Amino acid sequence: MEQRKLGSQGLTVSAQGLGCMGMSDFYGTRDEAESIATIHRALDMGVTFLDTSDMYGPFTNEELVGKAIKGRRNNVVVATKFGIMRSQPVKGGWAPITGISGRPEYARSACDASLKRLRVDHIDLYYQHRVDSEVPIEETVGAMSDLVSAGKVCYIGLSEASAQTIRRAHVIHPVTALQSEYSIWSRDPEDEVLPTLRELGIGFVAYSPLGRGFLTGQIKSPDDFAADDYRRNSPRFQGENFTKNLELVEQITAIAMRKGITPGQLALAWVLAQGDDIVPIPGTKRRKYLDENISAGKVTISEDEMSEIAEALPKGAAAGGRYPEAMMAFLNR
Ligand SMILES: NC(=O)c1ccc[n+]([C@@H]2O[C@H](COP(=O)([O-])OP(=O)(O)OC[C@H]3O[C@@H](n4cnc5c(N)ncnc54)[C@H](OP(=O)(O)O)[C@@H]3O)[C@@H](O)[C@H]2O)c1
User: Fold this and answer.
1) Helix (H, G, I), strand (E, B) or coil at 231
2) Residue 182 phi, psi (nearest 5)
3) Residue % of the chain over a pLDDT of 70
4) Which of 18, 20, 23, 27 to mutate to test the pocket of ligand 1 (most atoms within 8 A of CB)?
5) How many whole angstroms from its chain centre is CA 44?
6) Whose CA is nearest to atom 37 of ligand 1?
7) Is the CB of 22 under 6 A from ligand 1?
8) CATH entry 3.20.20.100 includes domain 3-210+277-298
9) Cα angle vertex 122, ends 86, 114, to 5°?
10) Which DSSP category does 223 fall into?
11) Cβ 132 vs Cβ 165: under 8 Å
């Protein structure tokens, strides 16, 4: 497996990580045995970079990852996050988000709790999941820097932060990675964030590189989602937006089929080709999909094919916001 450097502080990870969120939350049915088998297979195949957060579950995803890496800790780069607070799940649905916290004391207690759930003595990469507009970033990152000094965290990151916030944070403590949504149909980071990261020597972790599964071409109707699937609340997967987006994905599927690969592999290969400072973390809870996704690392896309993809799914063409309106307010702060 190809290795990529994240940031200029010395963190090296597999070119593709594994997103563990869907194993415990948001995306329908769960199967702990298959999820743990998927993590083990990922590690066996050279995927060293696992992504979780205290808000996935909430909390249960970190526990699952902790269980899966027991005895294999030294071969894993564990990335987790703090800052999005949720209440307990409501019956038949998911746990509502109750707020964002970047308060230093919150960061400290969240870190201790994550260490316990993950059953590790340090977190390799610790992100602030969303920027708290009520707390200056200097204070939050100051607390994260203290966690590094205390040996509880090795490297720090931010998620969905604005270019300006990244700059301010980087002055307080070197930021190793920024994690934001990035894929053929979500290209906002290209405008300001990616150039800033490249200027400052910060790595980029691309979440939802498969467009939350949509770019694999496997989702044909909103009814393909379980009743409690988060994607039912997302504007991109609703009504007319869904239909328009399906047409875009059909064109991506046609290009992939001509290449003898799956649309999901084309989507991942596209992200991998955007720069060797970018590490996608496709999410899956199944070994079958994992194998397919890892094989995308061998796919090359010619310049002509890049142009064809750009024509089929131009920047900004996806219909609908990538989050419900209330959650859009937490982005790019
Ligand atoms: N920082 C943030 O705010 C943030 C937000 C969202 C996600 N993330 C992180 O990023 C990771 C990845 O993002 P994501 O899970 O939202 O989206 P994604 O990777 O774009 O897509 C995941 C979805 O695609 C499906 N899938 C995966 N491989 C497939 C394949 N080869 N064929 C068909 N379907 C396939 C999965 O199905 P199954 O689940 O059935 O396997 C799942 O429903 C998450 O796990 C999480 O760790 C971070």
Assistant:
1) helix
2) -155, 125
3) 100
4) 27
5) 21
6) 284
7) yes
8) yes
9) 15
10) G
11) no
Tell me whether residue 126 is one of the annotated catalytic residues. no
The C-alpha atoms of residue 249 and residue 271 are separated, in whole angstroms, by: 16
Residue whose CA is closest, atom 48 of ligand 1?
A: 207
Mean pLDDT of the chain: 97
Looking at residue 90, what is its pLDDT?
A: 78
Is there an atom of ligand 1 within 6 Å of 234 CB? no
Model-level pTM?
Answer: 0.98
Q: What whole-number distance in Å separates Cα of residue 327 and Cα of residue 136? A: 20
Which of 98, 97, 173 is CA-nearest to residue 141?
173
With the most atoms of ligand 1 within 8 angstroms of its CB, the residue from 62, 204, 212 to mutate is 212
Ligand 1 centroid to 18 CA: how many Å?
Answer: 9
Does any ligand 1 atom lie closer than 6 A to the CB of residue 236?
A: no
Contact 180, 195 (CB under 8 A): no
Query: Among candidates 158, 152, 93, which has minimal Cα distance to 123?
Result: 152
330 Cα: distance to centroid of ligand 1 (angstroms): 20
CB atoms within 10 A of CB 45: 15
Q: What percentage of residues in the chain have a pLDDT greater than 90?
A: 96
Pairing of strands 175-181, 3-6: unpaired
Contact 41, 54 (CB under 8 A): no
Which residues, at least 6 apart from 8, have a Cβ–Cβ distance to it below 8 Å?
A: 174, 201, 202
Max Cα-Cα span within the chain:
54
Distance CA 297, CA 239 (A): 34
Closest atom of ligand 1 relative to the 211 alpha carbon:
20
The response to whether residue 180 sits with its C-beta less than 6 Å from ligand 1 reads: no
CB atoms within 10 A of CB 81: 25
Q: Is the CB of 38 under 6 A from ligand 1?
A: no
Residues 61-117 have pLDDT tens digits of: 999 999 999 999 999 999 999 999 999 877 777 788 999 999 999 999 999 999 999
Closest-CA residue, ligand 1 atom 23, reads 213
